[in-house]
Write a structure and sequence with these properties.
The protein has 546 residues and is an alpha+beta fold. Helix 1 crosses helix 2. The longest helix is centred in the middle third of the chain and has 19 residues. The chain folds into two domains: 331 residues, 3-Layer(aba) Sandwich (Rossmann fold); 190 residues, Jelly Rolls (Sandwich), CATH 2.60.120.260. Strands 1-2-4-3-5-6-7-8-9-10 form a ten-stranded mixed sheet, with helices on both faces. Strand 19 and strand 20 form a beta hairpin. The protein is built from twelve helices and 26 strands. It is globular, with a radius of gyration of 24 Å.
Length: 546
């Protein structure tokens, strides 16, 4: 039945028959007992182990994908429920995984069936727990395979200083309800709906966890009080340790994943330390089942190479990207890709977007009202039915959204790499937000979002001239896209993306308890002295790789 389950998930069974030992007791440092299941290939003596630590249970789909599948390919697999869930003792402490992870590794090394080497695997939180211990796991750790994750979730929760409301609410609701055997299925469907309903309730931010889950959630409340620069994150941010990780790392990400920018920073840190990680980015969202399925096959290949000395299945180039718009996979030696050159496309008067400098012109203006926040129509989300790339024309007709569009392209333009925006803005509020979004406009007028970024402004946080104009840098999501000839490049500028990020009340009050709101009058400048632009990583045809 387990083999049939693996097949039903779209995975390939290996040749080995698998036996399972349930509910192994793993002692944590404080005496709490964590439970794990061990999958072993019958007939193999002490093969390498794959360790998976999960807050979402160790049976069902996770047991099949992370236990049965690996064991059928000749690895032992230990799938553990983290503290506070699915039989493991203690109380779940979100993102506090280092000590329990190291205790589990110490236990693993003492088992009579341990063969001397192990790897770690898993997506999202299951990837974060790998970063929590990877620098301290010892020489026995020979490989890491992680998907749609990062070494720190701090900046993904506080995107550009904003607060990632919808994804945080979804995750808090999901983890608060992950108790029963079917919870993984039901919460995946219902949590996004409960989070959206709570976000649209009009209640203060500090009450939305109770609206969604039925009770106040400590982690959500902590996030509202402890901003990105507070000590709360000291033991939850493992980005400083990434460069010390010596085990080979295989990363999988999605262009529409909530963690992609910070996953790319982890990749850059490994490269700067002299390592050669593998990186795959597909046209996927955070919980895309195609990505989950494909990543298991990639992990088997990665583990065979680094634990069984069989590199025959590894691809030649370490970086593989799916280029949207072109509909094709490309292999490259590195990221950013060779031949990429940054091009500034300037916002221009009359809603233009052009590579040459803008002429003298007055600024464009709009008014942002937190009581009617600019909505979010499509883009990176944690879960839910929101299409990641959605026609933006309804949004672009709003008075609180500025739109800048290029002339019709006479040849293909490929944008592959980090995207950023360089804005010159003025607001009558010291506390306000700016959102920048890159879109592809088809000949029929359909405007599909590709990537976006946010920046929350506070007093003294940016360069401000005597006339009140602030110079603002906005980091957008990375992109891999072909704008086809006949299409147009479009940039949106707004001050909200609700409920993806919490609205800015404009008052400077703590976000959790703010009830009073102020409208903001916004100006975006595009003249020779203040040339606002989007910075695109353009790869010309001669530099493309097959």
């Amino acid at each position: 039945m387990r083999r049939l389950g693996v097949t039903a998930l779209g995975l390939r069974n290996g040749p080995h028959r698998v036996a399972v030992e349930r509910d192994l007791a793993v002692p944590a440092a404080d005496g709490v007992v964590l439970l794990a299941d061990r999958y072993r290939p019958v007939g193999l003596e002490r093969p390498p182990t794959v360790l998976v630590r999960s807050p979402y249970g160790r049976r069902g789909p996770f047991g099949l994908m992370c236990g049965q599948a690996f064991a059928s390919h000749g690895f032992q697999a230990v799938v553990q429920s983290v503290r506070g869930g699915f039989g493991s003792g203690g109380v779940f402490e979100a993102l506090d995984e280092r000590e329990d992870g190291l205790a589990t590794i110490a236990w693993l090394k003492e088992q009579p069936w341990f063969g001397g080497t192990f790897a770690m695997h898993g997506p999202s939180y299951l990837g974060y727990v790998q970063w929590a211990v990877a620098a301290e796991a010892g020489p026995e750790l020979r490989a890491l395979s992680m998907q749609v994750t990062a070494s720190s979730f701090r900046d993904a929760i506080n995107v550009g200083g904003t607060f990632a409301l919808e994804s945080t609410l979804i995750w808090v609701d999901l983890t608060s309800r992950m108790k029963g055997p079917l919870s993984g299925v039901t919460t995946g469907i219902l949590s996004p709906r409960r989070a959206r309903r709570a976000a649209l309730s009009g209640r203060p931010l500090s009450e939305l966890d109770q609206v969604a889950t039925g009770a106040q959630q400590r982690f959500f409340q902590d996030l509202l009080v402890h901003g990105p620069d507070t000590p709360f994150w000291d033991k939850r941010d493992f980005s400083p340790t990434v460069s010390r990780v010596s085990a080979p790392v295989n990363m999988t990400g999605g262009w529409y994943d909530i963690f992609l920018p910070w996953q790319m920073k982890d990749y850059a840190a490994l490269r700067a330390a002299g390592h050669r990680p593998h990186l795959t980015i597909g046209p996927w969202t955070h919980a895309d089942q195609r990505m989950m399925r494909d990543s298991v096959g990639e992990a088997v290949t990665w583990f065979r190479a680094h634990l069984l000395d069989d590199p025959s299945g590894l691809r030649e180039q370490p970086v593989r990207l799916f280029v949207t718009g072109a509909g094709e996979w490309r292999d490259y030696p590195d990221w950013p890709v060779p031949g990429m050159a940054e091009e500034r496309w300037h916002l221009a008067p009359g809603g233009g977007l052009r590579p040459d400098a803008p002429p003298e012109s007055p600024p464009d203006r709009y008014r942002y009202d937190p009581e009617h926040p600019t909505p979010f129509l499509g883009g990176p989300t944690l879960l839910g039915d929101t299409r990641p790339s959605t026609d933006q024309r309804r949004l672009e007709r709003r008075r609180d959204v500025l739109v800048y569009t290029s002339d019709v392209l006479t040849e293909d333009v490929e944008v592959i790499g980090p995207v950023s925006a360089d804005l010159h803005v003025r607001s009558d509020r010291e506390h306000t937000d700016f959102v920048v979004r890159l879109c592809d406009v088809a000949p029929d007028g359909e405007s599909l979002n590709l990537c976006e970024g946010m920046r929350r402004l506070v007093p003294g946080g940016t360069d401000e001239g005597p006339d009140g104009v602030r110079h603002v840098a906005v980091e957008l999501w990375p992109c891999g896209h072909r704008f086809r000839a006949g299409h147009r490049i479009r940039v949106q500028v707004a001050s909200g993306a609700y409920p993806r990020v919490a609205r800015n009340p404009g008052t400077g009050e703590p976000i959790g308890t703010a009830t009073r709101t102020l409208t903001a009058s916004q100006e975006v400048f595009h003249d020779p002295a203040r040339p606002s632009a989007i910075v695109l990583p353009v790869v010309r045809a001669a530099e493309r790789r097959d």
